[in-house]
Design a protein that fits this description.
Elements (H helix, E strand, L loop, with lengths): L1 H29 L8 H22 L19 H23 L1 H9 L1
């Protein structure tokens, strides 16, 4: 019985130093290199941060407490980069329609054969 008491006492005396050594080891392992995020990820994070700041500004102005019909509703913005392909597709469709209308008879004969 005395042996167990002595071992417990030694254990309780050495635990703080072991704990400190383990923490130091974990701290040295936690130091890592600087990670380079992709450009797309950084862009999405900047957009998310910007949207969150906008929400905080509207809450600070008291917009949160207003009734829904008096709150300013903003239309979702359409990215300009997506506008060019859409316009090109519309132009292509109009051109194809004009060409088919001009040569409708020849086109019908070609598909008929």
């Amino acid at each position: 019985m005395e042996t167990n008491d002595w071992l417990d006492e030694v254990l309780y005396q050495t635990i703080p130093s072991l704990d400190l050594a383990m923490l130091c080891k974990l701290e040295t392992q936690a130091v890592q290199e600087e990670y380079d995020f992709s450009a797309g990820f950084e862009k999405r994070m900047r957009r998310l941060i910007r949207e969150e700041r906008r929400k905080w500004r509207t809450e600070d102005r008291g917009m949160k407490d207003r009734e829904p019909e008096t709150t300013h509703i903003r239309w979702p913005s359409f990215p300009k980069r997506k506008l060019i392909p859409v316009l090109l597709l519309i132009l292509l469709a109009l051109t194809a329609t004009a060409v088919l209308a001009a040569n409708f008879k020849k086109t019908v004969q070609r598909f008929h054969w």
